[in-house]
Design brief:
Elements (H helix, E strand, L loop, with lengths): L15 H4 L7 H16 L7 H5 L1 H10 L6 E4 L6 H9 L34 H14 L7 E6 L6 H12 L5 E6 L10 H10 L2 H16 L5 H19 L11 E7 L3 H11 L6 E6 L7 H5 L29 H15 L3 E5 L9 H6 L4 E3 L4 H13 L3 E7 H4 L3 H9 L6 E5 L16 H5 L6 E3 L4 H11 L7 E4 L23 E4 L4 E5 L3 H16 L3 E5 L2 E3 L3 H10 L2 E9 L4 H11 L5 E7 L9 H7 L4 H12 L1
Parallel strand pairs: 1-2, 2-3, 3-5, 4-5, 6-7, 6-8, 8-9, 9-11, 10-11, 13-14, 13-16, 16-17
Antiparallel strand pairs: 10-15, 12-14
Helix pairs in contact: 2-4, 4-11, 6-7, 13-19, 15-17, 20-24
Function: Catalyzes the acyloin condensation reaction between C atoms 2 and 3 of pyruvate and glyceraldehyde 3-phosphate to yield 1-deoxy-D-xylulose-5-phosphate (DXP).
Catalytic activity: D-glyceraldehyde 3-phosphate + pyruvate + H(+) = 1-deoxy-D-xylulose 5-phosphate + CO2
Subunit structure: Homodimer.
Length: 634
């Protein structure tokens, strides 16, 4: 941490109560120092960069105006909350951010009372904050303010609209801040537009408005329906003045903005003026992702999580990957293009992660056959189902953890109709520093009970390519392919595209003392542990790559059940209900009685840290598997 850096104001701020001792005139200096602190920390301790730079002024203004942690600030996703962490007692510990045992990558109530709600998946802030606002009112806590911050990207998620709909119909005083960084900040606007904005956010205006509405209620001239109509009318007038339409004007939610989200003094004034207004409110800000660091402003996507970089020149330190195996995601992206060139029915779908899953390769080569649907995982699946129903072959790529949000859509909109949608679950298994909100732990256990699904996991890049080829062949139905974050094991990753018989595993190695059954790339780790165990213990160990969780290779499992008294299953997924559980069920159903031991992600939410560290923590690394084999034999 750069805590030794000399800052005129930031060094004296340990908590928001220290910030609130300053004058409004000092806030721009605080913002400048906070921004520099983030830059100097993240250049050597990588994390989510551009988003946090874009919310510096908003963070300072919120903690300056609101009495946190008594007042509730609910962040959406949490990529933008580093400034919030630094101002709320975690500046000295910030060097441990995203490291094993260090502070968490996203806000978490387990870490700080200033973190009001767990976030990591987008679009939940409005619903959670509305719940808090209603709880405060229910308890008679009339002094508590609740603020939800949501980005324009997160607004595409269905949950955000569900929250908005409920907020418009429920008695509450929630403030929703829409952080819109998808466009340049307008120049300071003058004339009637600025006049109307200043008028509608001033204390005098709103006091007069409240007194007038109360009087009209008493006289019987105004009722609740008429009040809502007036709010809609007022929002319409403001939309005309701003020469912009907004989706809130018909929802009985008062709308303010848009304003410059980097003018911290004006932002503090506006927040102060509207914070005690009754009813739900939207404050629309325009911000710039990466604000204050020119390379990040120009290329926000590349600077979302840029790794290490030079804080002066902006040069990113990219590791030399020459001669290394490719990322699984890049094998997916390139293979998808290869398949699409041969099969005109193939289209690609991703919910806002084109570069993260390498769908951008298809987007660049065949832009009309690739769709980024925004942060909307459920829609991505149902949209894919609709295309499949009318003859296309969608490859829908969703991170494993985010797939959980589309579970219902997979069942109702794909599996019931047996539609040929290929669900490619990137980031399956332990993902590393992003922690429990992002680990792809649950997909096998969640999807295994669903009829009509084929569920597979390739052990290496060749297997991934062949499974992708197999999945797009006729009459394969809904087909799941799960694979991890990071690199594979084959430098020479290209291979002929050949069909793999659905439901057929592989016997990788004969043995007589113990059978090891794996699924997916963790089989490579197991293979190394098996070699060491045989050398150290004089054992003969068979190794099976199950390859398909559903349908199971019953011939392979019958062989293992008949031949072995000891079976060890290994998977990079939650141990409850996953592949090991499927093997146990098969053995019981067929009255085989081997002793079965399972290795997998334990039934806990695994913390953040490097993938290798987390594998070791869960006993899933080479040493952990070797130890388990020794214990099993003894």
């Amino acid at each position: 941490m750069n805590s030794g850096q000399t800052y005129n104001l930031l060094n004296s701020i340990n908590y928001p109560e220290d910030l609130r001792k300053l004058t409004v005139e000092q806030l721009p200096e605080v913002c400048g120092e906070l921004r520099q602190d983030i830059i100097k920390e993240l250049c050597c301790n990588p994390g989510h960069f551009a988003a946090s730079l874009g919310t510096v002024e908003l963070t300072v203004a919120l903690h300056y105006v609101y009495n946190t942690p008594y007042d509730r600030i609910v962040w959406d996703v949490g990529h933008q909350a580093y400034g919030h962490k630094i101002l709320t007692g975690r500046r000295e510990a910030f060097s441990t951010n995203r490291k094993l045992g260090g502070i968490r990558p996203f806000p978490s109530p387990e870490e700080s009372e200033y973190d009001t709600f767990t976030c990591g998946h987008a679009s939940n802030s409005i619903s959670a904050a509305l719940g808090m606002a209603v709880a405060a009112a229910r308890k008679g806590d009339t002094q508590r303010h609740v603020v939800a911050i949501i980005g324009d990207g997160s607004m595409s998620g269905g949950l955000a609209f569900e929250g908005l709909n409920n907020a418009s119909a429920t008695s509450n005083n929630l403030l929703i801040i829409l952080n819109d960084n998808d466009m340049a900040i307008d120049r300071s606007v003058g004339g009637m537009k600025q006049y109307l904005f200043n008028l509608t956010t001033s204390n005098r205006y709103n006091q007069l408005r409240f007194k007038l509405s109360r009087m009209l209620f008493k006289l019987g001239i105004l009722n609740e329906e008429r009040r809502k109509a007036l709010i809609r009318f007022g929002n319409s007038l403001k939309s005309i003045a701003a020469q912009q339409q907004n989706i809130f004007e018909g929802m009985n939610i008062r709308y303010f903005g848009p304003i410059d989200g980097h003018d911290v003094k004006n932002l503090a004034r506006v927040l102060h003026d509207i914070k005690d207004l009754q009813g739900p409110k939207i404050l629309h800000l325009h911000t710039v992702k990466g604000k204050g660091f020119a390379p990040a402003e120009k290329h926000a996507t590349e600077w979302h999580a840029p790794g290490k970089f030079d804080p002066v020149t902006g040069e990113r330190f990219i590791a030399n990957t020459e001669g290394m195996p490719p990322l699984f995601q890049d094998v997916f992206g390139n293979t998808l293009v290869e398949l699409a060139e041969a099969n005109p029915k193939i289209v690609g779908v991703t919910p806002a992660m084109p570069s993260g899953c390498s769908m951008n390769i298809l987007m660049e080569k065949m832009p009309k056959r690739a769709f980024d649907v925004g942060i909307a995982e459920g829609h991505a699946v149902t949209f894919s189902g609709g295309m499949a129903k009318d003859g296309l072959q969608p490859f829908c790529n969703i991170y494993s953890s985010f797939m959980q949000r589309a579970h219902d859509n997979i069942i109702h909109d794909v599996a019931i109709q047996n539609l040929p949608v290929v669900l490619c679950l990137d980031r399956a298994g332990l993902v590393g520093e992003d922690g429990p909100t992002h680990h792809g732990a649950f997909d096998m256990a969640c999807l295994r009970p669903i009829p009509n699904l084929t569920i597979s996991s390739p052990m290496d890049e060749h297997e991934l390519r062949r499974l992708m080829y197999t999945a797009q062949l006729p009459d394969k139905g809904p087909f799941v392919i799960r694979y991890p974050r990071g690199r594979g094991v084959l430098v020479d990753w290209k291979c002929p595209l050949e069909e793999i018989p659905v439901g057929k595993g592989r016997k990788l190695k004969e043995g007589s003392d113990l059978a090891v059954i794996t699924i997916g790339p963790i089989g490579n780790v197991a293979a190394r542990a098996i070699t060491r165990a045989e050398a150290a213990l004089g054992l003969s160990i068979a190794h099976y790559d199950l390859r398909f969780l559903k349908p199971l290779d019953e011939e392979l499992l019958h062989e293992a059940g008949r031949k072995f008294q000891r079976i060890l299953t290994i998977e990079d997924g939650i141990i409850k209900g996953g592949m090991g559980s499927a093997v146990l069920e098969f053995m019981a159903d067929n009255e085989y009685k081997p002793t079965v031991k399972r290795i997998g992600i334990p039934n806990i939410f695994v913390e953040h840290g490097a993938v290798a560290e987390l594998y070791q923590l869960c006993g899933m690394d080479e040493e952990g598997i070797l130890t388990k084999i020794k214990e099993f034999i003894n």
